[in-house]
Amino acid sequence: MKEKFFVLGLDGFSYSYLGQNRFTEMMPFFTNLCMKQQAHSMHSVIPVISSVAWTSYSTGRNPGEHGIYGFVDKINNPFQLVVPTSDHRKKDTIFKKLSKNKRVYSINVPISYPPEPVSGKMVACFLCPKLQKATYPDEYCRELIKRNYIIDVDASLIGSNPIEMLRQLIEAMKIRFEIIYDIIEKEEWDFVQLHIMETDRLLHFFYTYITDNAANSRQEQSLVNEFFMNLDAKIEKLADLLGNDCRLLVLSDHGMCEIKSEVQINLWLKQRGWLKISDNTGIAGYDRESICYSLTPGRIYINLKGREEKGAVNTNEYEDVREMLREELLQMKYADTGEPIMDKVFRREELYFGDEIGAAPDLIAHPRAGFDLKANTTGNSIFTHTYLNGMHTFDDAMIVGKNVDVSQINSIEKVHDIIMRELK
Length: 424
Hints:
Elements: E1 5-10, H1 21-26, H2 28-36, E2 40-42, H3 50-59, H4 63-66, E3 73-75, E4 80-82, H5 94-98, E5 104-107, E6 121-123, E7 135-136, H6 141-146, H7 157-160, H8 162-186, E8 191-196, H9 198-205, H10 218-242, E9 247-251, E10 255-258, E11 261-264, H11 265-271, E12 292-295, E13 299-302, H12 318-330, E14 342-347, H13 348-351, E15 363-367, E16 371-374, E17 383-384, E18 390-393, E19 397-402, H14 415-422
Parallel strand pairs: 1-8, 1-9, 5-6, 5-8, 11-16
Antiparallel strand pairs: 2-19, 3-4, 6-7, 9-19, 10-18, 11-17, 12-13, 13-15, 14-15
Helix pairs in contact: 8-9, 8-10
């Protein structure tokens, strides 16, 4: 096992959970592992989106180089919204690089659809529409079908049947681990990565169930507890199968915190005259008189002539417009308390570099904890509340390594390099 390397991704699992009594009780094995191996926090990416974070991890590059900026990106002319997949990624992943001389397996890592050819097997992420398209090689999908593999849980259940959603989360996680146990025991492998997306899904919709003072449904609370206890048991079995010598890395891509309010940036832009748009047309229907528009979360694009299909802002006005908008964003206040919404508002060149920076948003609004930036174009209120009660944070991702030194890793983008060095 000395030459083998296993990576476990726990999407959205905050480092700060490790100090909470509730998690110590629900996840004794994992919290003990983290304490023994000196787990620490690290930074995510901006904007704090799983697709961007895991692409930065898998390529070791920033979005200005790999070209993924969100779960929804856009084509300038003609204007079109697109869901970026692995076909849109501009840099090679760790899975492709290692496949040149190592036996590689990847299960469920974000932005792995369509699955790419690897030396072992790959199972695509939640972007995959059906199991028949989820695997490399193609025939491996038969194993997934036999196991009733769940690509992703049905998030719409949160409104009609949250109990069933929680049960699906537990079942999906269980099946992913079972697949990995088989790979460890039956396959020849050098590098394996398993991604648990269910942690993120649960924390988005049931975040209040992990806070000590939450007044919650008893049945739902019991299932939330069961989820984390099952996760702990699965990790303990994984560690046992890997043995003492295998290099094990566990990390998350971002932290999570409770939502105070969702903030509809496009409605705010409409109210201040920055965005002109007809009701019920969606962002694709913005008028030519618009100065800018936003995509989730807080990515703002100037309607620049020569770049945008409906460009209205001249090149010589760009910097003045961008600075004026940046200042107004920084002055945004929460209606209920008067507190500022934004922590910082970045110009794109402050965050990104590389050949793909031309696709980057002109401004990236980074909110204070609790303010979840959205992009609705209809409605009457900038400040809204939905079934979501947990949101991503930049500064509370976690990392822990066994038989691998991760003490100098302070951001998810840097993890790629240490894996490549260990497996050279």
